[in-house]
């Protein structure tokens, strides 16, 4: 099952230009099986998601992108309303208590400007970034960063033994599906998505 795990819509994410109804049609057009609404500090109401998905044959899941002092974290299965900038450690406590799943989003965003070499950061130093202590997985394919940023994230995930995910981080409709996560099982709802994430039955990839 092919899912874009990282998508933003207007007006819940003020930085996005995508109308929610557009997503469903675009997802169907490009061959996505589903996508996750991961707004900034805002979790969609379950009934609103069901209404948006109704009759289209595309699965819609709910997540959240939380801003922490150590970097942005995608969270699935956490119903708590988290506002403001928190620490990754504090968020991790909430994640663990809820049995949720946390992913370090675009952990090396900005390296396209400076480059790892210029910053004199080796792989060990990159892997020592604090946010990685407080996540289950690492986003290794993100549509808003450079190939070098994604490559470094993949190397760190491999070094730390953490699984990698893919998501478009779409803020424009044409960006949907540029990176995806491919799940081994069919997934019908948020609870099953959470279970498959914890089981690790997925890989980061691209649409065929």
TrEMBL record:
SUPFAM superfamilies: PHP domain-like (SSF89550). Coiled coil: none annotated. One of its GO terms (molecular function) is 5'-3' DNA exonuclease activity. Residues 3-70 form the Polymerase/histidinol phosphatase N-terminal domain. It comes from the Bacteria. Pfam families: PHP, PHP_C. This is Polymerase/histidinol phosphatase N-terminal domain-containing protein. The lineage of its organism: Bacteria, Pseudomonadati, Thermodesulfobacteriota, Desulfobacteria, Desulfobacterales.
